[in-house]
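ok trying this again, last paste got cut off
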Amino acid sequence: MTTQQLILGLVLATMVFSVALELKVDDFKRVAQTPRAVICGLIPQFILLPVGTWAATLVLDLPPNVEAAMMLVASCPGGSLSNVVTHFGRGNTALSVSVSAVAALMALVLTPFNFSWMVAANPATASWLRTLSIDASDIWISLLVLLAVPMSLGLLIAHRLPPLTARIQKPLANFSLFALLAFIVLGLIKERQLLTLGLLPMLLIVIVHNASGLFFGWATSKAMGVSERDRRAVMIEGGMQNSGLALGIIAVQFNSDLGMVIIASLWGMWHIVSGMSLAFFWRRSDAAVLRAQHA
């Protein structure tokens, strides 16, 4: 692990910890009592987005490596950032965390399965078919270090040390927002040599692809009749894929193919923009409702 990766890991863990300070064990009990909402969050990630992506690549005339990258990103589960964005957008954070945890475990099987069948079932990418080998320990370590440990510590401190929680809660929440914005800026700086007008078509592909994930989350939650807070969590889970995992697979399996790296990198930056934009919109909507109620 590089120094940069270590720093980003610590930042993510801190963000998850700050979210946990505002959660209660009862929040997770309510989620356990309504497994339908968890299933609702998994359907867009592992069924609708992969199938929709495969269908789109059959229609679009794109380079095989670009189509393969789209399929790979669509096969990846959500990342830890989705929990923070859901929390900021006042969605059901406990549901978001639960879906992320279950999705990370399911990804051990479903990520290579979905990617393999999509690539094989598309004539343009059939030659790109590879036998993916995801190291289970990497996902377990990520799940443990970035999610389970900081979430457990946050819940424990919130339960045992309420005064301390009250003092550090707001500063850490502000830090989380700053860190999210910093990820966007640093990502743009890091990839600035790739940010040319020639990338606009790829960026458009990423924007539409990401929007389809958000739409599938909205459509599934509407069809299954979950609450508004649950719907927000499901939408974010459907639209925020673990592009970092995709980049790791591209490095190992495809020798860092440039076209694939560009798609996954643009995804990693854009899904934060789209997720935070939705979160700001929801917060403004909630504020408007409160003003109307007090008018």
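PB: full thing came through this time. The CA atoms of residues 89 and 144 lie 25 Å apart.
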